[in-house]
From TrEMBL, chains A, B:
InterPro entries hit by this protein: GlcN6P_deaminase, GlmS/AgaS_SIS, GlmS/FrlB_SIS, SIS_dom, SIS_dom_sf
Cross-referenced Pfam families: SIS (PF01380)
Provenance organism: Thermococcus celericrescens
Signal peptide residue numbers: none
Record key words, sorted: Aminotransferase, Repeat, Transferase
This protein's name: Glucosamine-fructose-6-phosphate aminotransferase
GO biological process: carbohydrate derivative metabolic process
Gene Ontology terms, MF aspect: carbohydrate derivative binding; transaminase activity
Every SIS domain range: 27-172, 180-317
Length: 326, 326
């Protein structure tokens, strides 16, 4: 079995690993996250920095995220404000730009990583989530990192944290759609795929787009849901799969689905109900911001099976390495 | 001749139209833009809202941008802050979501549009830039809107405005690369294209990506320059054109170019010098934030000629209409 598939299937376990990392952190630190936080990372870690920033904002703080390279070379263009903490994310903790980015702002530094590493040693605080992975692409570690840090945010802001056992079992429920996902991929030889999500599900759409590129070398796109009608939808035709990530669809989601079906594209809705879609994967009720963890295994499996269907080895993506250095 | 080509070639004239609109606005209003501004738009207008927000931040204010639909349905996730003005952008002034978005924040409203319209009538202030277009896709009007509003920003913040005659003549110089752009497109039958830009050139890369999709129905991507190394570059091979938008390349741009060439992709640099690229289009010195207007005609011509080469009519993009309504 591919390491990638094994690691996606480890998501429920990853949630428990994350919970333990969060609790260990509390044991060793008398520390609360501040209100104004800048998050940074590269690639998948950047797409992880976005929902963390959004959750921060939604919970009453002010979260801002930017890729490491933009913080390093172009930060004068971004409304960074007056952050009280910089959170840098890197699975290995050895990504050159993430380590360099720690110096970009003159504020306390926090590392979110899977290892004692260059990143954690250079930071004032480190949340180490040992969701280790053999494969090049991030899968269950992304989910575990998100959950561990979300718990810390909730705790810091005086909110109730989630029941990790419950969340873990819900991810297991979602993983039950694996066979259905494989059938979608085998039954419809789509030529490109468009992921749509709004609010905190937009960065999940971005991560889905990246997974497709990394594993399946495949034409994939991601947009804030209703933005797609403004020009981008021209590329959708009978060779297109549109994946609509939406917690609770409303009337306009159905209209959007019809619009794509009118262009002969097929729509997969991942959410609470199908909204007229060709394919549907139900996501159990959990509510934002934690619900993010229920979408991730679905989009990872989709990329995995597309790669396999194309005869590629998802464990060994072309031109990529596990740790990106200069 | 296609309307689209005629309109791209009208860029120098558009700059003068923009200058006149800016001056007319000053004649009729005793108004200065505030420091904290939220910008919104859909599609190309959203990609125009981004460099305007970035210019605002760079000039000492705080600019934030979001697509209209995200402001309407998911704004609780975004660090909007306490803006003093909402600027909504729509070429026609009749885009449903742009008009609705004016109600999203309870602050004074400013319309940036080409017509007296639903948008301008619902706003407290309107900068009307009559860079009218027949074609579905925005080309020289994007450039003209940007320049007119930039002048208003500079004026409002007590900075020197640009000499419109000079800027106009520089856009004419850039348009001189039209034949070279056609040769690139005809000489290299690329299968996908990746646009890269950092800071204020990142939204230009996004707009380039959208132009390619709208006109040429083509696989196009856009990333903050160095982000591309983190997973996305897996898709680049001997069928890929990488377009590097960069004012003043430095050492790492050369390394990035080599990395892509190592994957057999070809690189086109648009900037001050070639940085080892396969193709090079020189952009005259103007400096940020105005330099944006010199890159736009280049990326528009590239999309135009790709569409023509693919036998498509750039004036009539598939599935798209000039004004997007619900």
């Amino acid at each position: 079995m591919h390491a990638t598939l094994r690691e996606i299937r480890k998501t429920p376990e990853g949630i428990l690993t994350a919970q333990k990392a969060f609790e260990d952190f509390l044991t060793h630190h008398d520390f609360r996250l501040p209100r104004e936080i800048v998050y940074t990372g590269c690639g998948s870690s950047h797409f992880l920095s976005q929902p963390l920033a959004m959750a921060t904002t939604r919970l009453g703080g002010r979260g801002f995220s930017a890729p490491c390279s933009e913080l390093l070379y172009s930060r004068e263009w971004y409304p960074i404000g007056n952050p009280e903490l910089l959170v840098a994310i890197s699975r290995s903790g050895e990504t050159t730009e993430a380590i360099k980015a720690l110096d970009a702002l003159n504020v306390p530094r926090f590392a979110l990583t899977a290892y004692e590493s260059g990143l954690s040693r250079k930071s004032d605080y480190a949340l180490i989530v040992p969701a280790h992975e053999e494969s090049v692409v991030m899968t269950h570690s992304f989910t575990a990192f998100y959950f561990a840090f979300l718990q810390l945010l909730l705790h810091s802001y005086g909110r109730e944290t989630y029941d990790a056992e419950l969340v873990s079992s819900l991810t297991k429920e979602v993983l039950g759609s694996e066979e259905y996902i494989r059938e979608i991929v085998n039954g419809f030889d789509f030529r490109n795929v468009i992921f749509l999500g709004s609010g905190i599900l937009y960065p999940v759409a971005l991560e889905a787009m990246l997974k497709m590129k990394e594993m399946a070398l495949f034409w994939s796109e991601a947009y804030p849901t209703f933005e797609v009608r403004h020009g981008f939808k021209s590329i959708a035709d009978d060779g297109t799969l549109v994946v609509l990530l939406v917690d609770e669809p409303f009337e306009w989601h159905e209209k959007l689905t019809e619009e794509f079906q009118g262009q002969k594209a097929r729509v997969l809705t991942v959410g609470r109900h199908d909204a007229g879609a060709d394919y549907f994967i139900e996501v159990p009720e959990l509510g934002p911001p934690a619900n993010v963890v229920l979408y991730l295994p679905v989009i990872q499996l989709l990329a995995y099976y597309k790669a396999v269907e194309r005869g590629l080895n998802p464990d060994r993506p072309r031109f990529l390495s596990k740790v990106v250095k200069w």
